[in-house]
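[agent] plan:
  1. take the single chain provided in the ticket
  2. run structure prediction with default settings
  3. attach structure tokens to the ticket
  4. add a short note for the reviewer (M.T.)
[agent] executing step 1
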Amino acid sequence: MEKDWVKIKTFMNAIQAEIVKQMLAEHAINAVILNKQDSSYLFGKLELYVVKGDEPRANELIIEFNPEEGN
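[agent] step 2 finished; step 3 output follows
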């Protein structure tokens, strides 16, 4: 990962990760999902990254989108 990207959230479910990524894109925040799951058994995690300058706004949007989860 480039040095200006920061991890803001970790997921166990690829669909949830993609939904959050798309929500951020709708608010003009570029996000990247780094898939660290095993390809055969689908265990492991997915990490969501944004550019360092977008981190505060992205975290706010994630909390608004799903307030009980937070970070």
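[agent] step 4 note for reviewer: Helices lie at 14-26, 55-65.
[agent] ticket updated
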